[in-house]
Membrane protein (Streptomyces xiamenensis), 237 residues
Amino acid sequence: MAPQAPDQAATKAAFFEAFGGVRGMVETTVPGLVFVLSYTINRDIKISAIAALTISAVLAVSRLIQRDTVKHAFSGVFGVAFGAVFAMMSGDAKNFYLPGMLYTLGLGVAYVATAAAGVPLLGLILGPVFREMLSWRTRNPGRKAAYVKASYVWGAILLAKSAITFPIYFWGDATQLGWLRVALGIPPFLLAVYLTWIILVKAPAPIDVVAEMEAEEKAEKEREAERKRAAAAEKMP
């Protein structure tokens, strides 16, 4: 079956939502903003950490109440909780950001490593979104190449972000690091998403393997029904 082009508007919405959407960006950015704002004002790690954790929990609960997707919100809660505990236990406000920084670094390495290995992480993430699953690996080489290219883009952006933030972690102070993390939150993410979309738009369309499976299942049911009708006809005198 030839690659099928899905509805672009719906696909674009699903694509953006796969990365958390606008709400996901807010849920990722606001707790860190609350922490650095509070710490800048009162220089109290405990109060600032609790404030950040509280706002993160409120955002997650609001998703639960609205019966919305909670994976991004709860991943944010766990990240903020880990950072808050680490900062309070160590007595160093900069450690509030360390778990997120390590996650960014690890994710950047993962994007580059999987792209180099020919199994780009972005393809694994977006395959289900575009209903192509892993068909791009063997049936759509042009699309696989696009996923490799886009994964390198994500890796480069995340590693560049790490290259900027880690020196401030080691040699700057907590407020500098906090405001830098806020500033480097949404813009690099939007850049990566935009470049990914541009790359994928120019790539071959995804093969809708879900539609293929549904069509095959329907055809099998029709064949089974035909066999039953034929068997019934043979039994008739």
Q: What stands out?
A: The radius of gyration is 24 Å. The first helix runs from residue 8 to 18.
